[in-house]
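To whoever is on call:

I kicked off a structure prediction for a single chain this morning and the downstream step that reads the tokens threw a length-mismatch warning. I double-checked the sequence; it's 336 residues and nothing unusual in it as far as I can see. Pasting both halves so you can look.
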Amino acid sequence: MKFDISSRKSRFLLWGYILLATFLLRSVFFFQHINSPLSLHTPVTIEVSSGTTFNSLVTRLADQDIITSPLDVRFYGRMTGLADDIRAGDYRLQPGMNARDLLMKLVAGDTILYQLVIVEGWNLQQALAAIQANEFIETTFDRTDKATLQALFNTDFYPEGLLFPDTYHFERGTSDREILSRASTLMTRVLEEEWSSRDVGLPYDTSYEALVMASIVEKETGLASERQQIAGVFVRRLQQRMRLQTDPTVIYGLGESFDGDLTRADLRAPSPYNTYLINGLPPTPIALPGRAAIHATMHPDDSDTLYFVARGDGGHYFSSTLEEHQAAVDQYQLGN
């Protein structure tokens, strides 16, 4: 039997050309699919949970018609070795992104950062309530348990005032403990910075005592421009061994029993926070002071005022003598 060798070669060449053409054509389609925009007309947020595999994520996005060529996207992820490096979190996909952009975003951990605001003047429980009410923060402890809070802050006293009021950005799934750690670390840093540059002759033995004073200044201040004046009044009262006699400390000591109306009976009720009855500072801060209040506490004004009374417009009238103060009370609070 005779074989037509040239005919066999021709067939092999033909199939070779067909396979090469098919490969080239498939490669063209592959690169087109990888580089073509995802099927997005508006921004879309996707959640990648911890433990999610790249394959399952691609399948989900294909089911949502965001990815139209899941096979090519999976192959690209495996070919580049990036498929095993995706990170958990929430991601914002924008129109115009392609599969390569998506994969790089997932590997870089370019997640959505959510925002939490801890407000100046809040007390610790208000701050903790806001943290644990945030749907993107994981709750891990009972905020009402004092022993737990003391352990978290590593203190042997109630850790009032130890969080710095600020805006915090975080990823989905961040724990409440992590937010506390960041806020307490920031408060420590700010307090140390302000304490190191404080004025001489202040009546504070420690930076913690200054923090207690700053919390009072925070709660008493209605106008930012008055912080140093208010701090100055309290500093001079301490220096002259006068009682602070400030309502916010009494209100803090009343706790949940305070109904919004501070009475004469409240001012006579014994409490470690009743500065109408105790000498010096209360045992802990009464709120979360911001940097401005802390700074004012470290740099009070140097006038001779010892009293102030609310004018009714958010500001205060400051007096140097008791007689002048009583006249101001008559005018601004009693309407005489």
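Update from on-call: the warning came from a stale cache, not from the record. Cleared it. Sanity check on the structure: The CA atoms of residues 50 and 242 lie 58 Å apart.
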